[in-house]
Design brief:
Strand content: under 5%
Largest sheet: none
Oligomer: single chain
Structural class: mainly alpha
Distance between the termini: 117 Å
Helix content: 55-70%
Radius of gyration: 51 Å
Shape: elongated
């Protein structure tokens, strides 16, 4: 074999190796693209299901609103009818007379007012405030004593503000 044939074979082998590397990289990229496409399709399906649930919720809400509107319209109609009926009854009712107060009513009110005034003039008995007893002395448990045993060091005294 000649040097040209060997050089051509080596160049062909290099080009084949480069094609294999490029094919491998392209395969990896296509695999990643397929996986992302599947994830995107799954996300779109979930979004579609959420949109369907939202549409159903809106339809339920619209139905409930229509039902409440009908119920309120019915109640408003009944209230208007009752107010009209009450107005008719008030217009047809006789007006009370100012001199319709009897003497027995005046005497009864006067007697009640007098008893209230006399009760207000009498002094009220004063109540004593309730006495509160001081809480009984409770001894400290003895098992806590060993926690505080130790060198008895006097704590330094701090001067109070304004006192010398």
């Amino acid at each position: 074999m000649s040097a040209i044939a060997i050089g051509m074979n080596l160049m062909l082998a290099g080009l084949l190796a480069a094609a294999l590397v490029m094919g491998y990289r392209l395969n990896a990229r296509l695999k990643a693209l397929r996986e992302s496409h599947e994830g995107f399709a799954k996300a779109v399906a979930e979004l579609d299901a959420a949109a369907a649930r939202a549409e159903q919720g809106l339809a339920d809400l619209r139905a409930a609103t229509d039902e409440a509107h009908d119920a309120l319209a019915d109640r408003i109609g009944k209230a208007r009818a009752l107010t009209a009926r009450l107005d008719r009854q008030l217009q047809g009712a006789p007006t009370p007379r100012a001199d319709a107060v009897s003497e027995s009513d005046v005497e009864r009110v006067t007697h009640r007012l007098g008893s209230l005034l006399s009760a207000a003039r009498e002094p009220r008995p004063q109540r004593e405030p309730p006495r509160r007893e001081a809480p009984a002395f409770q001894a400290r448990p003895t098992f806590d004593d060993d926690l505080f045993d130790g060198p008895a060091e006097p704590a330094p005294r701090r001067a109070r503000a304004g006192v010398r």
